[in-house]
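[job 0412] stage=complex_fold ligand=fe (iii) ion status=START
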Amino acid sequence: MAETLPYSWYTDGNVLARERERLFEHSWVYAGHTGQLAEPGTYFTTRVGDVPLVVVRDREDELCAFVNVCRHRGSEVMAGSGTCTILQCPYHAWTYGLDGALRAAPRAEADPDFDRGPLGLLAAQVDTWGPLIFVSPDAGKPPLAETLGSLPEIVAQGGVDVQGLEFHSRSSYSLEANWKVAVENYLECYHCAVAHPGFSELIDVAPDSYRLERHPTFASHYAPLRDGSAEGQFHLIWPCTKVNIWPGHANLSIGRVLPVETGLTEGFLDYFFAPGVDAAWLEGLFELDSQVGAEDRELVESVQRGIRSGALEHGRLMLPSEELIRDFQRWVAAGIGET
Ligand code: FES
Ligand code: FE
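[job 0412] stage=complex_fold status=DONE, emitting structure tokens
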């Protein structure tokens, strides 16, 4: 069965609602790095699916994550990122500790039934892979290590010591395409020779050299340089976290795409390098990466226009070049309760 998912799944708000609820809200998704939370009281906000989250380093120096929705009447409690001693809602100043417990609510003494005890922020989960912070809105989700599986080992074998990486910069973007179109584009290099001439000049994209590898919770590409001197790795952790390692100086870029609407996706990529990276090499990498990014934008936005036209009910995958897309589509379908 090499048919794609039905194209209606890329435009239907009900499908997106199920994806958010059943896929995103029960997954580990990359959110940021420990450099953003260096001191007790530092925090940043993020979201997974439709759930706003706040990640904070508490007074005991532990990372905590909470659902960033006030227990009073639903305002987001924290905004942006920064340093705080308490988590205070801007609406009526309900005040939570860094442990999420409700500490104070103005005028509570006048309400004899008011009990702060059960009104703490809902717990979410946070876990790390070296400096990389992942979150899950699902308080019962098994540890991150279970989702990462053999990926840390594969990355180490690729010559990257994740623990020793230094954060360089974040690049943010949005795409006028369904999030699955963006992920599927990432999961195949069938288009590379045609659509990425600069990339293909450097990387051997022939099917015998460029390897795809299937895993239960992620998917991998191995991308050798044409001169055979090094190999890059590109991984996608279900549902939406990308991990890129370009061949050359030790580097890793990681980010995620998240749906905003059925036809709008936002994403970012955090770049990390081992210390002492050469400035000229860095410049070359960013140039190539932004060229590939611009080419991919054209492709995915064009796909979304084609899909949403309603002219076709589905497409047809080319196997084995697109077998990682097939895995992804099966995972999505199973996750939202379709077969
Ligand atoms: Fe947060 Fe009222 S909604 S204090
Ligand atoms: Fe591409």
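The mean pLDDT is 97.
[job 0412] exit 0
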